[in-house]
């Protein structure tokens, strides 16, 4: 069977399910001082923005983290496999990824876009990445495309010969796209964002690989719409997870 090989330079992130709001934080936090609460009372309290903002900022600043755990977000992510290997080092979420043992993988591969920095300078833990020359960009694109095309042809020949999917897949490079569902709460997401985004003014600077940062940025955009007071407090306190 012949497949048209596709190359992408982007990632897909979709928020597919959520139960997450600033009211969830207030609801969980106030039981410490007021006893049993209702979510409706917490939602009403959120309307008092100055009071709610002050409490959430206090919790974030003093790292009272557990109130930020009483919520849930499920994201659907499409990205190259090397991004998933980095992502799953964060043992603070639930993951389910498509399996190359049980389904034939699609002929979709990542190739860095023209704006992707290519030159690494500095020392471990403090690298800077600079734009490549046109010649370097052309080389990267040509080599990635060539390897992926040849690898997928090998994969397809083995499948056509009746070789099991779990064996045939071993020739495929890490640049092939996979997909997964990942579920986490806001505290876990803030931990992920603190490590996988690079921002000025953070208490603990991070130097993420650009491709996982692309995923993190899209997740953060969706989260900010759900929990604007919490995300603002996260920024105001140096982007340190409570």
Automatic annotation (TrEMBL):
InterPro entries: Thymidylate_synthase_ThyX, Thymidylate_synthase_ThyX_sf
Keywords noted in UniProt: FAD, Flavoprotein, Methyltransferase, NADP, Nucleotide biosynthesis, Transferase
Cofactors: FAD
Highest taxon listed in the record's lineage: Bacteria
Subunit structure: Homotetramer.
Function: Catalyzes the reductive methylation of 2'-deoxyuridine-5'-monophosphate (dUMP) to 2'-deoxythymidine-5'-monophosphate (dTMP) while utilizing 5,10-methylenetetrahydrofolate (mTHF) as the methyl donor, and NADPH and FADH(2) as the reductant.
NCBIfam families, per the entry: thyX
Protein name as annotated: Flavin-dependent thymidylate synthase
């Amino acid at each position: 069977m012949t497949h048209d090989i596709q190359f992408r330079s982007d990632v897909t992130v979709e928020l597919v399910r959520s139960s997450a709001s600033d009211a969830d934080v207030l609801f969980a936090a106030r039981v410490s001082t007021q006893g049993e609460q209702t979510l409706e009372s917490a939602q009403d309290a959120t309307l008092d923005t100055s009071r709610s903002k002050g409490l959430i900022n206090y919790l974030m600043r003093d790292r009272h983290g557990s109130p930020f755990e009483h919520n849930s977000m499920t994201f659907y992510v499409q990205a190259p496999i090397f991004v998933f290997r980095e992502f799953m080092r964060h043992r603070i979420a639930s993951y389910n990824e498509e399996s190359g043992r049980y389904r034939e993988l699609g002929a979709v591969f990542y190739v860095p876009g023209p704006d992707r920095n290519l030159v690494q300078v500095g020392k471990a833990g403090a690298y800077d990445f600079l734009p490549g020359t046109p010649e370097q960009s052309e080389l990267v694109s040509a080599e990635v495309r060539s390897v992926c095309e040849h690898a997928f042809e090998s994969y397809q020949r083995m499948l056509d010969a009746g070789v099991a999917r779990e064996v045939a897949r071993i020739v495929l490079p890490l640049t092939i796209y996979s997909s997964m569902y990942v579920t986490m709460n806001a505290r876990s997401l803030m931990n992920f964002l603190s490590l996988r985004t690079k921002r000025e003014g953070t208490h603990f600077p991070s130097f993420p690989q650009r491709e996982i940062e692309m995923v993190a940025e899209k997740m953060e955009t969706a989260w900010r719409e759900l929990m604007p007071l919490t995300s603002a407090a996260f920024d105001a306190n140096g982007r340190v997870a409570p």
